[in-house]
Amino acid sequence: MTYSVQQIAEALGAQAEGDTTLQVTSVAEPASAKLGEIALATDPRYASSLAQGSAEVAMLWEGADWRALGLKAAILPNRPRYALSGLTRMLDKGQGFAPGIHPSAIIDPGAELGVDVSVGPLAVISAGARIGAGSVIGPLCFVGVDAQIGEGSFLREHVSIGARVTIGPRFIAQSGVRLGGDGFSFVTAELSTVEKARQTLGDQGDAAPQPWSRIHSLGSVTIGADVEMGMGSTIDNGTIRDTQVGDGTKIDNLVHIGHNAVVGRNCLLCGQAGVGGSTRVGDNVVLGGQVGLADNITIGDRVIAGGGTIVLSNVPEGRTMLGYPATQMSKQTEIYKALRRLPRLLRDVAALQKVVSKTDGSKADKGD
Asked: Fewer CB within 10 Å: N-end or C-end of the chain?
């Protein structure tokens, strides 16, 4: 793939200056950029390293003096990081999966494949499955019975889609995504030690240990349009109704969404985040890395939870949360600052105690 500077600028809706006929084949960091590559120096802090490379073209910040940087051409977007999204899309070489149906793929006669669907080596597509037009099913993928995958979707290698899972258009699943496993749902004949502890906030009472009985997952998983999932992420089936993820939500690596959970539209769930069963997450919510949401709670729209936050109760819309247990970020910061002051405070208290003790002792000696 080769594009002129002018073609790239037009695609990005950005301003291009200099020799816009120069051809670009790939993108690189400023210090390592070679001829034919566009260097990324979208902040003045990175511009000094351009001299270490051989780039003739760079994507800079709005108003940058590209001539002073020794360049022959430049692209000057008003929002460089957003422009990077379009640039990387244009120059993405993909995974190299061959088009068409590989002879080793196993496709049930009852499956329906839209036009221009590609199926990689050793992939399995089950009876009743429907794959939308232009989708790519990568090597060693599995698509279960009656599953539906929307048009323009892309499943990388080793992705597993369970029976009756419904996925909207333009779904992207990285390696190892697993959708539609049974929910982690078990029950005991009598009140369990866990239920007792939950009722009393600690005391298990007289509850006796018991065997666990499985609650089967009769629901499935429903995924909206333009959802992306990272490597090793999983979503459990619902118990009766489907577990749901809304349009435009992006899910990072090693994220787990429990049974019956509902995740809204345009959310970001970062690495190792976990959503407990039956929890409802609003729209435009951001969960930082290793955030945990307890089961059966509600997270309002536009909530942001910083990395490592553990949320144990409902959070109203628009809140920014941090810590364990989660509190408003501003309060958590105050608590952290207070904790750092504790050693000094304890030393001051100890010193005051000594002064008071000596004073009381001297008064006793004088008979006061």
From this structure: C
